């Protein structure tokens, strides 16, 4: 059976767990060689790498702090040096911090780091990869349904970071369109991961808010990313795809 991504190289940032690891697996199953980045979980990242190799592809983990622009640029360079190319970039690494705008007790440093990871890290990765990516490449960023809605107080900063990713996506689609490089965003809703398990204190409310009445899975997000990375999605760019169970319907 032909694998639609065979011969391609993908970089998935934050690929050591959760949605990132599921995306890495989906791309490897479709035949892509896969690089993943991690900030601290080396053992988990290496475990994912061994799993990916089981699909018959090349795989390697690279340490990089997504909040550090030098490390992000170095990550892209290291992946190209090791694999020879990058055809697919998945900006998955992200952090979540809540804080109401009037609350003087907020840890402003944490909020600033969230912008560094969720916005500056994504922008830096795209700027670093664009000159090195062959025509016809794929750039996919993992946003959040919070990029277009803030259902609770204290989400403004996080929503702003994810809204920025969607805005960048539309602009970058114009910038890179002449080279056939597509740029899209996938916006998950409530997804069952170790960072946001389906049995947390908000789970019942979140599940009831979706049209399907349940949490999604990391594999369901990964399937959307794999589609956008494949040849069937060659005429989709500048788009935002919600994988949210209808929470924004």
UniProtKB/TrEMBL annotation:
Pfam families given in the database record: adh_short_C2
Gene3D superfamilies hit by this protein: NAD(P)-binding Rossmann-like Domain (3.40.50.720)
GO molecular function terms attached to this record: oxidoreductase activity, acting on the CH-OH group of donors, NAD or NADP as acceptor
Occurrences of domain Ketoreductase (ranges): 8-194
Record's signal peptide: none
Domain of life assignment: Bacteria
Similarity-based family: Belongs to the short-chain dehydrogenases/reductases (SDR) family.
PANTHER family noted in UniProt: SHORT-CHAIN DEHYDROGENASE-RELATED, SHORT-CHAIN DEHYDROGENASES/REDUCTASES FAMILY MEMBER
Protein name in UniProt: Oxidoreductase
């Amino acid at each position: 059976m032909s694998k639609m991504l065979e011969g391609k190289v993908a970089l998935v940032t934050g690929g050591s767990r959760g949605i990132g690891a599921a995306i890495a697996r989906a791309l490897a199953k479709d035949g892509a060689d896969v690089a993943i980045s991690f900030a601290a979980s080396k053992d988990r990242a290496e475990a994912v790498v061994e799993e990916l190799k089981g699909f018959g592809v090349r795989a390697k983990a690279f340490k990089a702090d997504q909040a550090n622009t030098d490390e992000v640029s170095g990550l892209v360079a290291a992946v190209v040096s090791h694999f020879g190319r990058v055809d697919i970039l998945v900006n998955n690494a992200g952090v979540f911090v809540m804080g109401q705008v009037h609350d003087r007790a907020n840890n402003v440093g944490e909020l600033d780091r969230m912008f560094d990871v969720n916005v500056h890290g994504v922008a830096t990765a795209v700027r670093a990869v664009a000159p090195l990516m062959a025509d016809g490449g794929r750039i996919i960023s993992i946003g959040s349904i919070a990029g277009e809605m803030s259902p609770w107080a204290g989400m403004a900063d996080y929503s702003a970071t994810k809204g920025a990713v969607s805005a960048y996506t539309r602009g970058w689609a114009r910038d890179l369109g002449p080279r056939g490089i597509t740029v899209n965003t996938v916006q998950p809703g409530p997804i069952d991961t170790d960072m946001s398990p389906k049995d947390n204190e908000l789970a019942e409310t979140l599940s009831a808010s979706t049209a399907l009445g349940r949490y999604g899975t990391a594999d369901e997000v990964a399937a959307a990313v794999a589609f956008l990375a494949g040849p069937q999605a060659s005429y989709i760019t500048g788009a935002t795809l919600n994988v949210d169970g209808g929470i924004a319907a």
